[in-house]
Amino acid sequence: MKTEANGKYEMRILRVDLSSERIDEVPVNNEVARKYVGGTGLGAKFLYEEVPAGVEWSDPDNRMMWFTGPLAGTRVAGSGTFSVISKGPMTNMAGASQANGFFGAFLRFSGLHGIIIQGAARKVDTPAHL
Predict the structure, then answer these.
(1) Closest CA to 1 of 23, 24, 30
(2) Which residues, 6 or more positions from 67, have their beta carbon under 8 angstroms from its beta carbon?
(3) pLDDT averaged over consecutive 10-residue blocks of the chain (130 residues)?
(4) How far is CA 11 from the centre of its chain?
(5) Is the sign of the CA dihedral 33, 34, 38, 41 positive or negative?
(6) How open is the CA angle 34-97-57, to the nearest 5 degrees?
(7) Dihedral sign from CA coordinates of 71, 73, 77, 79
(8) How many domains does the chain have?
(9) What is the largest CA-CA distance in the chain?
(10) CATH code of the domain in which 76 resides
(11) How far apart are CA 118 and CA 26, in angstroms?
(12) Angle CA(3)–CA(68)–CA(54) in degrees, nearest 5?
């Protein structure tokens, strides 16, 4: 997170596309950052906008997302919290879960606020000895 002199809250997310084997670091514009803040709010926004209706939980068009909250990595108690957002296998509906630990803080210390994974990796044959 960067807070500039003009008061803008700058966020960056990592997009991982397994199908195209691309990884991009992209900014989140200031308006979106202020409206959805972080964590589950951002995850819900991206899930709603990027996953078409009818996509199953195991479909490559689904997304698996990890987002930190606005206090991640600060001295506030519980600031290592992060959210995982996706369509769930039990209901095929949007789901979010939160967890504590060091991951949320370390993600933030890396300069990122979230990771979005999509697509499907190409099949790799299992070695004969396994």
Answers:
(1) 30
(2) 13, 38, 39, 40, 42, 43, 82, 83, 85, 113, 114, 115
(3) 56 95 94 88 94 92 93 85 92 91 90 95 74
(4) 12
(5) negative
(6) 100
(7) positive
(8) 1
(9) 59
(10) 3.60.9.10
(11) 15
(12) 120
